[in-house]
Fold this sequence. Notes:
- The chain is mostly helical.
- It has helices at residues 2-40, 44-50, 52-66, 73-85, 87-104, 108-139, 149-179, 181-190.
- The chain is elongated, with a radius of gyration of 20 Å.
- The relative contact order is 0.14.
- The mean pLDDT is 86.
Amino acid sequence: EEQLSGERRRIEEQAKAFNQLQMVLILAIVLVYAVMASQYESLRDPFIILFSIPLAAIGVVAALKLTSTPFSMQAYIGVIMLAGIVVSNAILLVDYTNTLRRRDGMTVRPALMLAGRTRLRPILMTTMTTVLGLVPMSLGIGEGSELQAPLARVVIGGLLTSTLITLVFVPAMYTVFEEGWKALWTRSHSEK
């Protein structure tokens, strides 16, 4: 019975810690949004960029599933890190699109296409350097490194999928926010 109460106490403490980390994640997202809103002097552009954060969840789940890694405190900390890391790719894309529209007077679609082509290489390079830098940690080689492996696996999985999906999803959301759903729908069907 003593072992059962100890196990129950451990589960309660873990649930309390997860609740605290959930608040930290929400706070991190709010702070990222606030910083971007002040830099862009807009509420819309940071909102478009924040759409890349939920896309990282696909990679997080896939990475944990593929490596048979349980969702632990370290994995949760990795998710919090992702909230800040993942938005960098979308920032590159949205910022350059805005620059092309302001500086060169381009319309939405050509600006997005040029921004995608121009920023593809830097986006892929920053993603790959981060992923490759975390591979040794994700393998859990060395003393005590098995504790840090879930963090690295979560960041790797989230970063890979969010990068690939961001290159398609963020331009689509940008178009929707600029021109509305109807413009996205009619242009995609008129190009076929």
